[in-house]
Amino acid sequence: MEKFTVIIPVYNVAPYLNACVESVLQQDFVNFEILLIDDGSTDQSGAMCDAWAQKDARIRVIHQENKGLSGARNSGIDAAMGEYLMFLDSDDWWANSSVLSRIHDRIRLTRAQVLSFDYQKWYEGQFDKPYFSATDAPAELDDSLAYLLQQQLWVTGACNKAVRRELFANGALRFRPGISSEDIDWTLRLALSAQRFDYLQEVVFAYRQRKTSLSHKTTVRRVNDMIGNVRECLRLLEETTSKRDLLMPFVAYQYATVLYNLAALDRKERHEPMKQAKEMQYLLDCSENGKVRMLRTAAKLGGFGTMLMLLRCRQYLLRRI
Questions:
Q1: pLDDT in tens, 232-263
Q2: Which of 9, 216, 271, 273 is most deeply buried (CB count within 10 A of its CB)?
C-alpha cells in the first residue's frame, strides 16, 4: 500500500486553511501524511497549522521565513516520506472523501510514475465545468506521455498530479525560487524525468479563483518571468533528442499563454517584453492547438503588433460581457 505525502504551502490563508486540511483528513484512504509549510505567515495561519498537528499525528508542520511558493514546496519535498508526492494549494480543497482511494487504486493498476487527474475551477460560490473532458487513459500504453499530450491532458501545474518520490531524488524537480509561473518549466522537467504516465478521469480538487491571487495579477514582472520560463523550457529541450519533438507543442502553448498576458499590459509596459516575446514567434508554428493556431493566423495576417491588439480587444470585450 503506497503512502502519499500531501504538501500544502501556507501563507496568510487563515480564512481558507481549515477547509483545505479537512478535505484531506476526511479521506477514506488513510495512508498519507500532510506537510503544512508555514511560509512566514503574518496572520493566524501558523498557529492554525500547529493546532492541526496536535489533532492528527499524520500532520507535520514546518515553519520557515518567507521563501515564496517554490521555496515552500521545496521544503516539503525535502521532508516528504511518502512514495508519492502531491501538492495542494492552501486555498483549494479536495473534492470528496474518495479521491485518494481512486488515485491509489489507479496507481496500483498502471504503476504510473506520474498520474494526472481532473479539477474544477470555483468562482465565488459557483463551479465551472471540469477542466478536462477525456476519459481514463488506456491502462496499457506504449507511449503514455504522447497519449496525454495528444489528448491535451498534459498541462502546466503541480496540483493535478501525483508524482513518484524517487523522481525528486537528484534535484531535477525542485521548483525554481524567486519567480512566478514556476510550474511551467517544472512541468516540462517532469515530462523529461519520468517514463510512465497516466490520466485518471476524476475531479480531485476545487481550484479557488481569487481576484487577489497572484495567479490573477498580470504585471510586467509576471510576463518577464513567463518569458524566462519558456526560454528555460527551450534550453532544456536543446539538451535532449528523445522527447524534443513531442514536447515542442507543449512549449508553444505556454508561449501562447505568454502572449495573452502580454496583451493585458499597458502599451508602455509591454514595450520591452514584447521585443523578447517576438523573438520566439516561431513557436506558433509548433502546435495545432486551437488557441495557438488562432494566434498564428492573426500574426500572419496582421503582424505581431496587430495580433496583440486583437487579443487586447478580445479581453476587453470578455470583461464587458
A1: 999 999 998 889 999 999 999 999 999 999 99
A2: 9
Is 6 in a helix, a strand, or coil?
Answer: strand
Do 63 and 38 touch, CB atoms closer than 8 A? yes
| Contact criterion met (CB below 8 Å) for 31 and 2 | yes
- Cell digits for 208? 479557488
Q: CA 175, CA 186: separation in Å to the nearest integer? A: 6
The conformation of residue 167, written as its DSSP 8-state character, comes to G
Question: Which residues are CB-neighbours of 246 under 8 A, at least 6 positions away?
Answer: 145, 146, 149
What whole-number distance in Å separates Cα of residue 235 and Cα of residue 232? 5
- Reference 82, options 21, 159, 5; nearest CA is 5
50 contacts: CB under 8 Å, gap ≥ 6? 61
29: exposed, middle or buried (Cβ count in 10 Å: 0-12, 13-18, 19+) = middle
What would the pLDDT profile of 14-27 be if each residue is shown by its tens digit?
A: 999 999 999 999 99
- The string of DSSP codes covering 28-91 is S---EEEEEEEES-SSSHHHHHHHHHHH-TTEEEEEES--HHHHHHHHHHHH--SSEEEE--TT
pLDDT tens readout for residues 153-205: 999 999 999 999 999 999 999 999 999 899 999 999 999 999 999 999 999 99
Q: How far apart are CA 268 and CA 271, in angstroms?
A: 6
Residue type, 78: D
